Amino acid sequence: MDTPTQVVPGTQAIARAARLLRAVTASGTDGASVVDLARAAELSRSTAHRLLSALRVEGLVDRDEVSGRWMPGPELFLMGSVAATRYDVTGLARDIVRSLAVKTEESAFLSVRRADETVCLVREEGSFPIRSFVLSEGVRFPLGVASAGLAILAFLPDHDVDAYLERHPELETTWGRTHGTSALRTRLAETKERGYAVNPGLIVEGSWGLGAAVFDRTGRPEWALSLTGVGFRFGPERITELGRILLAHAHQLSARIAGARR
Predict the structure, then answer these.
(1) Which residues form the HTH iclR-type domain (predicted)?
(2) Which strands sit side by side in the sheet containing 207-215, from one edge to the other?
(3) pTM to 2 decimals?
């Protein structure tokens, strides 16, 4: 997918509105306050409120009159329904994600690459009663942070990885020293050698994740399957077993996607 690294001259308002829409959808069905959305979109509160009000007139966002929180609007649903016929693979993936959750007893996910981020599309709960809630539908992470994005980034061409790291020197500041360029390159190499990514509680302490890339018919990693759970369930031997199951399901989904899009 193309990466929006620059704003076309004269379209600043569109870029700002797009950032707000992404922040609104990431907030899920509970919505978010204008303060939180302004922070996420790197806008002033007044600018965010003005743009949200305009988007509301168009039906792209909605506002709960009691709580004042903003959430996705009906026009987004209609647009998304049309776009889904081209981009959505959840229909192909849902039973595979469910199987992954059943076989591992951990929470299982499907995420898609969108530019420099991953977006969670599907979540299936495992049977183990203690769960991690780092990831749910609509949540976004930069590539290389959560296990899904680490798996995708690891299998991109080297020049794409280099360009991504150059574009995002803020990863270390935002996500900690373990996401500095050197440390991240080490984890990418380990992921590529192992076949799947391991996130040992680097986002939330005690919440571990495994991720495996899912490829399109050209061999590009555009999706990922992942598992999350509490750290004491991710010992060395079990990680190996979980990784084997995860890779088998990722290969199955890659084959299914390639076959469906011919």
Answers:
(1) 11-74
(2) 140-142, 117-124, 107-114, 221-230, 207-215, 197-200
(3) 0.72
Give the DSSP H or E segment for 124.
strand 117-124
Size (the chain), residues: 262
User: CA dihedral defined by 148, 81, 52, 113, rounded to 10 degrees?
Assistant: 20
257: Cβ contacts below 8 Å, ≥ 6 apart: 89, 92, 214, 215, 216, 217, 223
Q: What architecture does CATH give domain 12-82?
A: Orthogonal Bundle (1.10)
Q: Say what the pLDDT of residue 80 is.
A: 72
Report the CATH number of the 88-260 domain.
3.30.450.40
Count other Cβ atoms within 10 Å, centred on residue 67.
Answer: 11
Contact (CB, 8 A) for 225 and 108 = yes
Q: Where are the domains of the chain?
A: 12-82, 88-260
Give the closest residue to 69 by CA, choosing from 26, 41, 32. Answer: 32
Tens digit of pLDDT for each residue in 137-189?
A: 788 899 999 999 999 999 999 999 999 999 999 999 999 999 999 999 999 99
The neighbouring-strand residues paired with 124 are: 108
